[in-house]
Prior knowledge:
Blueprint lengths: L2 H9 L7 E3 L5 E6 L2 E2 L7 E8 L2 E12 L2 H4 L11 E8 L5 H5 L4 E3 L6 H12 L15 H29 L4 H13 L5 H10 L2 H6 L4 H11 L10 H17 L20 H12 L5 H5 L5 H7 L11 E3 L2 E2 L9 H22 L3 H12 L7 H7 L8 H13 L10 H8 L3
Parallel strand pairs: 5-6, 6-7
Antiparallel strand pairs: 1-2, 2-4, 3-4, 4-5, 8-9
Helix pairs in contact: 4-18, 5-6, 5-14, 5-17, 6-7, 6-14, 9-10, 9-11, 14-15
Amino acid sequence: MNEDLLHTIWKFKLTKKTDYIGSKGEIIKVVSIGEHNSNSGPDFFNSKIEIDGILLAGNVEIHIKTSDWLKHNHQINKAYDNLILHVVYEHDTELEQNNLHNVPVLILKDVIAPSILDKYKQLETSKSKIACGKSISKVDSFILNSWLDRLLIARLEDKTDYINTLFEFTKNNLEETLYILLFRNFGFKINDEAFELLAKSLPYNVNKKYADNITQLEALLFGTAGMLNELFTDKYPKQLQNEFEFLKHKHSIVPIKNEMWKFSKTRPVNFPTIRISQMANLLSKQQSLFHFIENKPSIEAIRAYFDIETHEYFKTHFQFDSVSASSTKKLGETAINTIIINTIVPFLFFVSQLNSNQELQEYALNLLSEISAEQNSKIKLFQLLGINPKNAFETQALIKLYNSFCSKKACLHCAIGKDLLKNAK
Length: 425
């Protein structure tokens, strides 16, 4: 037994009765449970309780045992003076304060259906990564879909918190913010921090000056990345070295440490050298990404915009001075979807909040609904339980569900867990 469970039972009226008898025979009728308080102070504010036919308005406090009042030192806290009802699971002592202020004690132990406690125990003791197991597929579709809608917004808000830090870093420059965000996500997790530092070390307005010269762009990117400090054999990296020596002094560039880049435990097509060359190709486009997406292009147009590949040199190389079999190294479909999900959509969502633009927010959410469902270990857990997401809108919501609730066994704070308890009556 814990207080969170009692709060849930009280909030959603998951008992066998609607009218109750207090510890001293009072007739108690709950008119309104009030507002659930998750901060310090009484558990429910502004409740309306009828005691022996008299309607009272005030606060309700909930404990496992009556004596917890003393254990929590409520007797010396003025915030608890306006109490009209003390709800407990087990009444183990009489309190002077309750008697002094005529606060009735309502005992829940005998009015909670055993099936609710059984369901809670099942969730609490489950060894599965998703505690509710196959029961999740039996939850009413309206409740499940409404919850996923809320979780998707919550996940985007999590991402916009980070974007806001970038916005502050760039002194409220939206184009520069998008530039850094794009770089970070080009690291595809394993090199995200290195790519972010690269973007911060090489301002967007410097790159923009050389958008019409792919060699100079690559020299800037590879040089600032600290990848042009070797004695090369091949002509192309030597050319980049020479270009960067001039550009470095011209723009006072301080390269980052080459050691930051991770090549191990990643496929060659995801090597930072390949991603940097692809980024140069992207930055060389006539229309910047910022101005491109502000016109709300279709999902097909966005995919076409990211239809990029590396410099010719990298068709036969994954790293400098290391020849490999010839292949075209384009940004793949999965990578493009990941960029849209983690860069384009959150950035648009951030801008929509910044400008109170509901239309832009709807556009961003619609992009997610047009991207196929992601495939990863977390999504697979839900699929094994009969939840089969149709698109990225739903998979992003499920990832939030897993990260914030399932992985923490926070079933009592999850709409799915609450629904299962409700239906256990």
